[in-house]
Design a protein that fits this description.
This protein is mainly α. The chain has one domain: MFS general substrate transporter like domains (Growth Hormone, Chain: A). A two-stranded antiparallel sheet has the order 1-2.
C-alpha cells in the first residue's frame, strides 16, 4: 500500500462548439480524480504523521532532561536525591493515569483526548521553561506527565483503528515505533545541544512551537469520533484505586534508593492492596474500567510482561550509558548527545525500511526473539566497558547492537500485544501497553541506578580511585541489565511460542 494517493484516469467527452458530443470535432480530455478509497489511504497516513508528531514531543521530553540534569541542579540548587524528582514528577502521573485516560478516551472520543493532552503538555512545557524554583519546576513536570498520559494512552488504539489490515498495520506500527524509539535517543542529543548552546530552559520551551503545530494538525486531520459517551461510565471508584496503585508503584520504584527498606516494603504492600481491591472491584462492577478478560489473552499479557523487562534494560542502558560517557570518558554535554546520535539513525532506518517487511516474512514471534538476542549481546558487551575505555571500542559497538535489536523487537512486540485485544478494548489495551512501558522504564532506572551507586560507594569506601570505582559500578549494573534482557528473551520464547504455528 502506497503512502501517497494514486489517481484513476477516466476519459470524459467534451462538448463541441455546436453543443454536440462526439464526432471528429469532439476531443477527449483525461481528468485525474482520486477515488474515495485512495483519498482514505492518503488521509490515514497523514493522520499517522500527526499521531507520530504528538507522540514524538512527549517522548523527546521524557529523555531530553537526562543530559541537562547537572545544569538544572546547579541553577536551581537541587540536592542529589531532590534532582531525581525532575524525572520522577513526570513519571508518576504519567504512569498512574494511563489506564484511566485510556478508558476516558474510549468514552469521550480518542481525538478529543489526544488533542486535549497536546494542549496540556504544551502549556506545562512553557511552565517548565520559565520555572525559577525547584517547586515550580517539579509541579510543572507533574502537569507534563498528565498531558503525556492523555496523548500516549489513546494513540495505539487510534493507530489500530486507522489500519485494520495486517500488512498496513505492521507498516504503520513500524513507523510509529521508529519515531518513538528514535525520539528517545534523539532527546539525549537535543538535551545536550540546547543546554550547551543556550540553557536548560530551552529543552522545555522548544515544545511550544512543536505543540501548537501538532495540536492544530490534530484538530484538522484526525477523524472526529463521538466515543461511547460518559453515560456509559468509567467506574470512577475503580479508577481511583488503580490510579493510586499505579502512582504508588511508580513512586516506590523510582524512590527506592531514597527510602529505608522497611518503608519501601510497606509502600509496596499498600500498592499491592490497592491493586487487589481494584481487581475485586473490576470483577463485580457493572461497567468495569479494565475488563479482566483482557488478561485472558496470552498475547496481550505475555507481550506486556516481556515489554517490562525489555524496556527496563533499554532505559537503564540509555540513562547509565550517558552517565558512563560523561563521568568515565569525560565527554561534555553536546558530545554526549552526539555520541548517542547513531541510535536514532539506526533505529529509524531499520524500522522504516525493513521492519514491516521482515515481520511480514518471518512473523513477529521470530523477529522479536532475534531482536532480544541482539539486546542481550549488546548489554553483555557493554558490561565490559572499563575505566580506561574509549567510545569507539567500548560504547559504539554495543550501542549499535542494542539499536538494531530494539528496532527489530519493538514493532514485533507492539503488533503482538495489540493483536491480542478486541476493537472495543483498543483504548484500554493501548493504555495498558504504555503503562507497562513506564513501569519497565522506572524499574530499570531505579534498580540499575541503585546497583551502580551501591557498587561505586562500596569501592570508594575501600579506597578505590573515583573513575575506576564509577566504571565498575556501571559494569555491575550492565551485568544485571544483561540478566534482565535474558529474562525477557526466555519469557518471550515460552509465553509467546503459540504464535509460531499461526505464522507459518
Amino acid at each position: 500500500m502506497t503512502m501517497f494517493p494514486v489517481t484513476s484516469r477516466a476519459p470524459r467527452p467534451v462538448v463541441g462548439t455546436h453543443g454536440e458530443r462526439g464526432g471528429h470535432a469532439a476531443m477527449t480530455a483525461v481528468v485525474e480524480t482520486p477515488t474515495p478509497a485512495l483519498r482514505r489511504t492518503y488521509s490515514r497516513w497523514t493522520a499517522l504523521v500527526v499521531l507520530c508528531a504528538g507522540t514524538l514531543m512527549t517522548i523527546l521530553d521524557g529523555n531530553i532532561v537526562t543530559v541537562a540534569m547537572p545544569a538544572i541542579q546547579s541553577d536551581l540548587g537541587f540536592s542529589g536525591p531532590g534532582l531525581a524528582w525532575v524525572v520522577n514528577a513526570y513519571l508518576i502521573p504519567f504512569g498512574g493515569l494511563l489506564l484511566l485516560v485510556g478508558r476516558l478516551g474510549d468514552l469521550v472520543g480518542r481525538k478529543r483526548m489526544f488533542a486535549a493532552g497536546l494542549a496540556v503538555f504544551t502549556a506545562a512545557s512553557v511552565l517548565c521553561g520559565v520555572a525559577t524554583s525547584q517547586g515550580a519546576l517539579i509541579a510543572a513536570r507533574a502537569l507534563q506527565g498528565v498531558g503525556g498520559a492523555m496523548t500516549a494512552a489513546v494513540v495505539l488504539g487510534m493507530l489500530v483503528a486507522l489500519f485494520p489490515e495486517p500488512r498496513a498495520q505492521a507498516r504503520a506500527i513500524a513507523v510509529f515505533s521508529a519515531v518513538g524509539a528514535a525520539g528517545g535517543a534523539l532527546g539525549t542529543f537535543l538535551g545536550g545541544a540546547l543546554t550547551q548552546a543556550l540553557n536548560w530552559h530551552w529543552i522545555f520551551l522548544i515544545n511550544l512551537p512543536i505543540g501548537i503545530v501538532a495540536l492544530l494538525a490534530a484538530i484538522r486531520v484526525l477523524d472526529a469520533e463521538d466515543g461511547e459517551g460518559l453515560g456509559r461510565g468509567a467506574d470512577y471508584p475503580g479508577a481511583a484505586l488503580v490510579t493510586g496503585a499505579l502512582m504508588l508503584t511508580v513512586y516506590v520504584i523510582v524512590g527506592s534508593g531514597d527510602h529505608a527498606v522497611t518503608t519501601t516494603l510497606l509502600l509496596a504492600l499498600l500498592a499491592l492492596a490497592l491493586f487487589t481491591a481494584f481487581t475485586v472491584r473490576q470483577a463485580r462492577a457493572v461497567r468495569p474500567l479494565l475488563r479482566l478478560r483482557l488478561f485472558g489473552s496470552r498475547l496481550l499479557s505475555g507481550a506486556n510482561a516481556v515489554q517490562i523487562l525489555m524496556i527496563a534494560t533499554m532505559y537503564g542502558f540509555q540513562f547509565l550509558g550517558a552517565l558512563y560517557v560523561q563521568r568515565v570518558l569525560g565527554f561534555g554535554e553536546l558530545l554526549t548527545g552526539t555520541a548517542f546520535l547513531p541510535a536514532p539513525i539506526v533505529i529509524g532506518v531499520l524500522m522504516l525500511g525493513l521492519s514491516a517487511r521482515t515481520i511480514g516474512r518471518f512473523g513477529p514471534y521470530r523477529v522479536l526473539l532475534a531482536g532480544l538476542v541482539l539486546i542481550v549481546a549488546g548489554m553483555a558487551l557493554l558490561s565490559r566497558a572499563p575505566a580506561e575505555g574509549s567510545y569507539a571500542a567500548d560504547v559504539l559497538p554495543p550501542l549499535l547492537l542494542l539499536s538494531v535489536g530494539f528496532a527489530a523487537a519493538m514493532p514485533a512486540l507492539t503488533g503482538l500485544a495489540m493483536s491480542g485485544a478486541r476493537e472495543e478494548d483498543a483504548g484500554l489495551a493501548s493504555g495498558l501497553f504504555n503503562t507497562t512501558q513506564v513501569v519497565g522504564g522506572s524499574l530499570g532506572l531505579a534498580v540499575l541506578s541503585v546497583l551502580a551507586a551501591s557498587r561505586t560507594d562500596g569501592l570508594l569506601a575501600g579506597g578505590a580511585e573515583v573513575i575506576s570505582a564509577t566504571a565498575e559500578g556501571y559494569q555491575a549494573a550492565f551485568r544485571v541489565g544483561t540478566g534482565i534482557a535474558l529474562g525477557a528473551l526466555a519469557l518471550a520464547a515460552v509465553v509467546l511460542r503459540s504464535r509460531v504455528g499461526a505464522e507459518r
